[in-house]
Amino acid sequence: MAIAVLDLDMDRLPPFIAGLERYTAALILLRLHGVPVGQALLPVVAGRLGGDDLRLGLLEAADSAFWEAWLRSYLGERPAPIDPAQLPRATVAVCTRDRTEDLARCLAALMALPDDGQEVLVVDNAPATTATRDLVARYPRVRYVREDRPGLNNARNRALREASGAVVAFTDDDAAPDPLWLRTLLRNFDDPLVMCATGLTMALELETSAQITFQRYGALTRGFKRIVFDNAWHDPLLGWQAGAGANMALRRVVTDCVGPFDPALDAGTPTRAGGDGDMFRRILHAGYRIVYDPQALSWHRHRRSWEALRAQLFGYEVAGFGILTRTLFFEGDLNAIRHAKQWLGREWYQLHQALRRRPGSTPASIVLDRFRGAALGPVLYLKSYWQTRKG
Amino acid sequence: MSDLAPMISIVIPTHNRCGSLQRTLDALQAQRYPAERMEIIVVADGCRDDTLPMLRSYHAACPLQIVESGGNSAASARNRGAASACGPIVLFLDDDVEPRPTLVAAHAQAHGARPGQVVLGPSLPLPIGRRGYFHQRTRFWWDEKFRELGAPGHRFTYQDLLSGNLSLDRATFTRFGGFDTALGTAREDYEFGLRLIKAGIPFHYVPEALADHHEHETGNLDSSLRRVRHEGRSDVLIGQRHPEVVCTLALSFWRPGARRRQRLLQWLVFHAPDLGDRLAAGLGRQLPLLERAGLREQWGRLHNQLRLYWYWRGVAEEAGTPARLIALLREGAARAPRGPITCAINLAAGVEVAEHRLDTERPAAAHLWYISGTLRRHIGVLPEQPGAEPWRGAHLRPYLARHLAPPFLKALAEAGAIHPAPPEWQQRLTGAIERMERWYGPARAHELWWEQYSQWARLDAEQIAEV
């Protein structure tokens, strides 16, 4: 079972789409006038999408964000073009570790961005081989930096120090940004309080059941509506809802305002994830804003194997409880207790649903992994903390 | 330019904020507007700090008048300042705003382009990171207020008139008798705005007339709670003077003795205010503790309760007895709009045509229809709102997109305007629009994933149906 991923513009729709015999369904990114505005999910019948009328089928399955954009367009509103001269200068940073196959795709996508004078930086994090260096050497516009301390957050901090742009846009090595990704992220920095902008991350492929499970889980997508996160109404401990590290841009001064990424968190450490969510939390806590701009589009190759997915979801909970540990014990914030209690209530319900095999429920093995992650989170965070203190 | 540039009289009421006032004056020296076409009138309202010596020794590029008054209220200070003005246009600035260099020119230009209107400029909180729940929420309120004013097709209400960065014809100001000094220090600007709106004076928001608002220096939690109490008093006075807007005031939520907590609140503010004040003060001391512990939700709840208490405390103070408050509410309910809506607009004729009709008729309310051939659908109502300007063409498209999208989209689908297809297929479209209606509108952070989940569930259902 596999799901096709398509990118279709409603203005330039082919009469039909066929030849999808390998797939049972399709996840379609819907564009209007070239701009991503919504998504649709359609079954594939006999290799063909949308039955007798593709356009009608897509309209039928479209989400509310698409309809909002459609109506605004009907009422004469057109997407405002972005003037590159008004944007801050940017550095695009890719933090990577021995994944040259993905990195090659990522760099190819970055070379397809319009050249507004942005710098492209690859931070090679504690590499085992010279493969990354050799790959980057083929791109004269890309700068190579090696960061020997392992840990994604160490690499991110290095990128913030090395960058020459006022804004540093981060993409993961397993993501491929859309050509207008960078410009779209950067337009959100016209508000001086915006310390961070995040974008929409779609699935690059949904070929395995692990990838489909992850997409259904919705972990990297935050919908198709722009949101300005502000502490006045959004709890900083829910800062992770603002986006994901695979698709985010930060002002370089963020380290002066709220401090660097926590080296005890995220990939390469026992806590496995959470560096982005912790940064979002601190940005909101300090009274700055985060904009989620779903038109800043990037494509992400989800983990293909079931084991990798389980490890990833386990890691999310480790990191979530790692952050709560940091908040509670290092910052004296009792709000963390409330979040832990809420988490327990929610996951208990999920487990209940899973054990009773309710339709659409998460597999019980994954829910149990999450419980394990939550239980180990505080221990692993403290372990990671001592490791970084010593190291 | 100076031949055409009108004389602008800038009126700044101030009360013991010497340093802040000086910053405002300094910023006025750096305006991109001829200094000989400006005059500044500072009304020192009962100042006991260094304000007066500072003003006397201040070297301004334009004439600087100092008017002393007895510390009555900002409303009477503004009236006195306007009475001393010479220019045809008065610009009111607060003493805690710092005008950007384009402010005066932007106000002047707006009056030149459309004489006779009220010009509102933004006083945006200084864009710096801020800790502390109170300051973060206050800043959010200000930022949201001006974002709404600047949104395309904003329909102005009397509550948009803020006196911190405001200009209008001096003649208009005098004709309407200026600010009502009985309202004291709260909502005198709303009340003035209400009289202007009722008389049909147009409001205009000019984002270029920008000032930085140093509200974090001048406001704090205690002063804001005191202010809420004044707002309660002012709302009663506004209701007494203009019963038709009672339904837009917070006090209209009064329901005699509905729930236990509300009954307690009512008893406290009317019968035992001393006890209530002591309780509120005691609870108020818990706020810093809650904040230090990071209990933001509990802080928010308590803060809301305290605001509620002080608001009703002010209401009770001004109304005197529950009976008089109820009489005010009855009067308001009797005057609330409920007349038949006589204006009906057919959107099938085109949105431009509908806009043109709104612009020429300026109705208080209108029915929107989609009538084409045998298709006859009621889309909705452009509602009457007391204290708001009549409907204009520019309001229509944003209102349709924000509030009436599902019925409008359904009518468009049935008319074949979305996708030309046989009529029986159009039902598939209207069904789809009904499904997404639940999610339409701005994202709700706690529901970020729910719509996607519903899409996946629908796919599952379709695939099961096929099997």
Key descriptive features of the protein:
heterodimer, A: 391 residues, alpha/beta, Spore Coat Polysaccharide Biosynthesis Protein SpsA, Chain A, 3 domains, nine-stranded mixed sheet, 12 helices, 13 strands, 39% helix, globular, B: 467 residues, seven-stranded mixed sheet, three-stranded mixed sheet
Spell out the CATH superfamily of the largest domain in chain B.
Spore Coat Polysaccharide Biosynthesis Protein SpsA, Chain A
The name CATH uses for the topology of the largest domain in chain A is Spore Coat Polysaccharide Biosynthesis Protein SpsA, Chain A
Radius of gyration of chain B (Å): 26 Å
CATH arch. level architecture of the largest domain in chain A: Alpha-Beta Complex
Average pLDDT level of chain B: 94
Would you kindly provide a brief summary of this structure?
The complex is a heterodimer of chains A (391) and B (467). Chain A is an alpha/beta fold and 391 residues long.
Polypeptide structure, described:
The complex is a heterodimer of chains A (391) and B (467). Chain A has helices at residues 54-61, 64-74, 100-111, 131-137, 152-162, 181-186, 209-217, 254-258, 275-285, 306-331, 335-355, 364-390; strands at residues 3-9, 25-32, 35-45, 48-49, 90-96, 119-125, 142-147, 167-172, 175-177, 194-203, 227-229, 247-251, 289-300. Chain A is of the alpha/beta class and 391 residues long. Chain A has three domains: 3-74, no CATH class; 84-304, Spore Coat Polysaccharide Biosynthesis Protein SpsA, Chain A, CATH 3.90.550; 307-390. In chain A, the strands form two sheets. In chain A, strands 5, 6, 7, 8, 9, 10, 11, 12 and 13 form a nine-stranded mixed sheet that branches. In chain B, the strands form three sheets. Chain B has a seven-stranded mixed sheet with strand order 3-2-1-4-8-6-9, sandwiched between helices. Chain B has a three-stranded mixed sheet with strand order 5-10-7. Chain B has a three-stranded mixed sheet with strand order 11-12-13. In chain B, strand 2 (38-45), helix 2 (51-56) and strand 3 form a beta-alpha-beta unit. Chain B has three domains: 8-214, Spore Coat Polysaccharide Biosynthesis Protein SpsA, Chain A (Alpha-Beta Complex), CATH 3.90.550; 224-335, no CATH class; 344-466, no CATH class. Chain B starts with 7 loop residues before the first strand and ends with a helix. At the A-B interface, strand 3, helix 1, helix 2 and helix 11 of A face helix 5, helix 16, helix 17, helix 18 and helix 19 of B.
